[in-house]
Amino acid sequence: MTDVAGGTRLREEEIRPADLFNEYLRLAAIDVGTYFSESDRSPVSCPACGASGQVAFAKQGFVYEECPACETLFVSPRPPAEAFSRYYTEAPSVEFWATDFYRATAESRREKLWRPKAQRVVDAITRHGDERHSVVDIGGGYGIFAEEIAAIWNHPVTIIEPGPALAEQCRSRGLHVVQAFLADVADGDLPLGPRTFTSFELFEHLHDPLAFLNDVASLMASGDLLLMTTLSSHGIDIRSLWDKSKSVSPPHHVNFFNPVSLRLVLESAGLEVLEVNTPGRLDIDIMEGQVDDVDSRFLRSFLRTASSDDKAEMQRLLASSGWSSHVEVIARRP
């Protein structure tokens, strides 16, 4: 789960303490049985290009396929959208993430994750928009990003958050929340004028990614921006750990696009792709933590014997060359 933007090398433990994260994964494994074991499942084609996938592996009762055309990794057959909606509004693992996990890591994640992300959004608006843009954060979670961007951007910030626990967390801190799934949000729920929509680490969770992008596009006016981050199937830690990657964690992460396939699906939604970046900082650290599971003899040797400076240099190379598992896209409504 390489979910950090730019800068010096980061340690996963700083933002995802192992004991808390493993408890979250343990609860999620139980929730799979509760919310998905009885669900009918239907085959889906590649969510990026529509090609038929090929079975890659199975994990916790979910089958992942890989697209032979664009190398998107995705769950198929897939439970219905209603099962995912129920899971995200009721499941104990989701509640644990929204409460225990976030309370314990909030300030570290504020400093290490959300403050840099807020600055990246402001920089993106400066490059591609103008100073009038309000910000609409889709899936705003605990609201830390909204607080951080409000501190450096003097325009309204609106959070769209369907989860009851997370929406209440945001309201308790005085943030403006539209408590709804994106498909149920109306234009009148949002500020007037030009907007930048943000979506962080949400795309990998979605039952129907193209439908989500179409919903976003329907709320965007010409010139509005979308800055979105997600997990890349081309990222070195996911590619090297594959089915053993903790990022590949159903039922949460069911889509792994990549810099190539993200362009395809965004253009299918009528959006113009302006930038695709991979500013991750955790790939090397994640693989170090699971070195015995890495499937490359070279990488295992590198992870065990390289100096800290060499590892930092390798992480910078991965980020700058498009092979980090954290991918960021900036798109515009023409």
Per-chain topology:
Layout: H1 12-15, H2 18-36, E1 54-59, E2 62-66, E3 73-75, H3 81-90, H4 92-128, E4 134-138, H5 144-152, E5 157-160, H6 164-172, E6 176-178, E7 195-200, H7 209-219, E8 225-231, H8 236-241, E9 255-256, H9 259-268, E10 272-277, H10 283-289, H11 297-305, H12 308-321, E11 326-332
Parallel strand pairs: 4-5, 4-7, 5-6, 7-8
Antiparallel strand pairs: 1-2, 2-3, 3-9, 8-11, 10-11
Low-confidence stretches: 1-8
**Sheet with the most strands: spatial strand order:** 6-5-4-7-8-11-10
Q: Helix segment count?
A: 12
Helicity level? 40-55%
Largest sheet, described in full? 7 strands, mixed
Compute the number of strand runs.
11
**Beta-strand residue percentage:** 15-25%
Q: Helix/strand-derived class?
A: alpha/beta
Helix and strand run? HHEEEHHEHEHEEHEHEHEHHHE
- Cα Rg: 19 Å
Taking the alpha carbons of the first and last residues, their distance comes to: 32 Å
Q: Identify the overall geometry.
A: globular
Instruction: Give the mean pLDDT.
Output: 92
Describe, in plain words, how this protein is organized in 3D:
By secondary structure, the chain is of the alpha/beta class. The chain contains twelve helices and eleven strands. The strands form two sheets. The protein has a seven-stranded mixed beta sheet, with helices on both faces. Strands 1-2-3-9 form a four-stranded antiparallel beta sheet, with no helix packed on it. Helix 7 (209-219) links the parallel strand 7 (195-200) and strand 8. Helix 2 crosses helix 4 and helix 4 packs parallel to helix 5 (144-152). The chain is globular and about 55 Å long. The chain starts with 11 loop residues before the first helix and ends with a strand. Residues 1-8 have low confidence and may be disordered.
